[in-house]
Amino acid sequence: MENEKPDLEWLFHPRSIAVIGSTRMDKGTQRVPHTIFFTVALRRMGYPGSLCVVSRSGASEATGEEKVYPSLLDIPGPVDHVIFCTPARAIPEILEDCVTKGVRSAGIFSSGFSESEDPEGKSLEQEVLRIARKGGIRIIGPNCMGLYCPESGLNFRADLPNNPGTTGMISQSGGMAIRTIFHGTEKGVGFSKVVSYGNESDLQGWEILDYLAQDEKTQLIVAYIEGTQDGRALARSLKEASRKKPVLVLKGGLSPEGNRAASSHTGSMAGSDPLWQAMLRQTKTHVALDVNELVDTAMTFYYLKRPAGRRMALMCISGGLIVNYTDVAVRHGFKIPELAPDTKKNLSEVINAPGTSFTNPIDMASLFFSNRIYAPMLGALDKDTNTDFILFIIAMEYVRGLEYQYKVSVQRIVEAFLGIIGRVDKPFVVVVPPSVDEESRLAVERAFLKAGIPTFLSMDGALRALSARIDDPREEAVGR
Amino acid sequence: MENEKPDLEWLFHPRSIAVIGSTRMDKGTQRVPHTIFFTVALRRMGYPGSLCVVSRSGASEATGEEKVYPSLLDIPGPVDHVIFCTPARAIPEILEDCVTKGVRSAGIFSSGFSESEDPEGKSLEQEVLRIARKGGIRIIGPNCMGLYCPESGLNFRADLPNNPGTTGMISQSGGMAIRTIFHGTEKGVGFSKVVSYGNESDLQGWEILDYLAQDEKTQLIVAYIEGTQDGRALARSLKEASRKKPVLVLKGGLSPEGNRAASSHTGSMAGSDPLWQAMLRQTKTHVALDVNELVDTAMTFYYLKRPAGRRMALMCISGGLIVNYTDVAVRHGFKIPELAPDTKKNLSEVINAPGTSFTNPIDMASLFFSNRIYAPMLGALDKDTNTDFILFIIAMEYVRGLEYQYKVSVQRIVEAFLGIIGRVDKPFVVVVPPSVDEESRLAVERAFLKAGIPTFLSMDGALRALSARIDDPREEAVGR
């Protein structure tokens, strides 16, 4: 049996949006009202349609250029999408106006529904659903951030990045959506569409998954899921989506305690851990344990074509670190085999430095600072038939020491390195773990990321992400 | 049977030091010679004794204020300690001069001994040992950085920190010693004495351990060990040391591949993984998997008195993150129990904000930005009888969002928080995982660390370190 294939394309292209709620600054805290929060977010993302505010309180010092109407029915043209920031209790009445006005979709930011301890919340959610179904309005949420789509100017927070990418996301938590977009962007991963869907009263996670699975703008799908109303439908959608595209899942509420927290967060009853584990395994999705792992894995799919296997050429400039990280790699099931005889021969012909041996792992020692050797060295490793990918560890304390000894800046070294790496065909990743000079570490990490090289904060993180990448049969990177 | 108790105190208080080796800049690479590297390091650390250079090449543009002698025997006064930066082959002859001169200890930075592929290296190491024993000279290394002791001005790298602390370290790898000192310092952990002992030809790791175990300046011991010549002696020393002080061990070369890398690094034959695992378990040391974990654990012992158990009060300002981190905590064997009825009552009396419930985990939501509630909130959690410690997660993307909404800077919030935390008796730790604005994240992390609050990059890292801290019976923090 297949899920229905709802066409949700229209959801991401509303001709006009009205944000509904108070425009008044909070007198005590001087808090900017959420109504304005959303309006500014859409304006900054360059939303091209018509945008207005609906508020009984009228314009205020917080409202910007958008026109403020006392009622939805006062707006002259059509309204395709509304965003509710009113108190929950006010929504049913205004939703009747939406039906009259022909609104097609509503994102409900307001909380106080089935996730709340108040029993009234549940019946209020049912009432909203009843009106929406009657009027043919799709509800996103309630208790969610709604839609983010840089390409069509949709946005739920003013400071989110406006560069589109190829990652689609469904998230029951607005916070996890925001966190993933920000952290992903820091790691060079861009997003096509993100839907924060909260309590999932009407629009279901699996429906958005089905849409993203066939969306041409989306090549990779990430999901933060707390629960579902229909486990079979979700399983079918995950399975179908992961047949078409890599799907990475972070499941919230696997433990009974986490489940309890999820229940007061999005009203989800998350179900038992073994059941979810089995389902995620069967659907061939990749499971991440936290947002860092989710983003590290997304970055790996985004930038890296699939390494043919788990045999790595491991390069480092610190002897002790390389011993330890070899242990870590072996613990994760990776191999660090001898280099092929041809590779050793090629390396010894071009490089002749004392204290550097061409065993694998490769202790580069001070060779790191002789940039004339990068090209022959990486060239030889690129052709090595005994290894599937190259992992380069940069130890910032060595970089600083060698900067002092050789008077060469790490920026110049990284630039020289990046000048060559484009010619290397073999998958190549970098690990720059924290040690000293966090600001320099960030600069090095960002330079590699900017060049499209997956760059990790920890060996552990790199190997988890690489495992997921290698286990997935798809050959090509999805981000470029 | 007990190990001998060698008194090594004298090793850290040499009256005079001679650094032996070339003073010439490398013509091709313009590299600063190691001889100068060590001299500058000692000078910058404020070494109070007499310091000179021994070099057949005489003074150069690289030498500073130190006098350069052509031979050790030309130095007028006594020389207690020498540092060898000459080629390995030159050492036996000069070591004979050391015997004549009455030198008491020699650190050999030079490599090319038993760790090298050249069979001559092994016999050279034996020859050095024979001369040293004859003359009563203790050899540190070869193939090591030697001694770091801020209090007595000993140092092996110019940019290492000069603020003493209570952590002692033995490390077979100079790189791992440097990495641990730097990363430890970033995390607020200072060092009393660090010995990088390389190939361990004469001075044994276990001897230094015995010394650190009874050293009054040392309250915590960390060790990076690749191998040993005497497993029984090392086991006895680890056991005895960990009876007196917390001992954290990072073992390099647990895997056969890591072992191979260790062998070309310090000449160590590391032995089998299960044997080491059993030995480390029996000696009741805490085992870390990498330097980050080693430092995170050290930080926890340094600053945190022992939580009475694994029950945490978990505070966060992001609902999704708190669900996920609750799962992570449960996976690590921690509990997030309901707060005691009294706590809930106290909290609901002082705090009355919509959407905030006093279940545990505690979703602070926007309360994070109402600093008047910190004092009553932390006061109530401090007295809670159902929890053993407080873990506070700061989500930087929320901080940035709330900064926008409330126009309050995170610095002011952190300051207000720190103003109260001194009155909280219950162990308190912070996790600030990477998301957006790495520079702001660093500033927040550093502010908490400066106040002596263990602050972690990941929930996983925090929980590993806390596990070690809770498993150790010692009650008091060792760093203050």
Using DSSP, what is the number of strands of chain A?
A: 17
* Second-tier CATH architecture of the largest domain in chain A: 3-Layer(aba) Sandwich
Number of helices of chain A: 16
Oligomer: homodimer
Q: In which range does the helix fraction of chain A lie? A: 25-40%
- The CATH topology name of the largest domain in chain A reads Rossmann fold
Strand order of the largest sheet of chain A: 3-2-1-4-5-6
Largest sheet of chain A: 6 strands, parallel
Biggest interface, residues from each chain: A-B, 88 and 87 residues
Number of self-contained structural domains of chain A: 3
C-alpha end-to-end distance of chain A: 34 Å
Mean pLDDT of chain A: 91
Structural class call of chain A reads: alpha/beta
pLDDT < 50 runs, ≥5 residues of chain A: none
CATH homologous superfamily label of the largest domain in chain A: Succinyl-CoA synthetase domains
Summary?
Two copies of one chain form a homodimer. Chain A is built from 16 helices and 17 strands. By secondary structure, chain A is α/β, with parallel strands linked by helices.
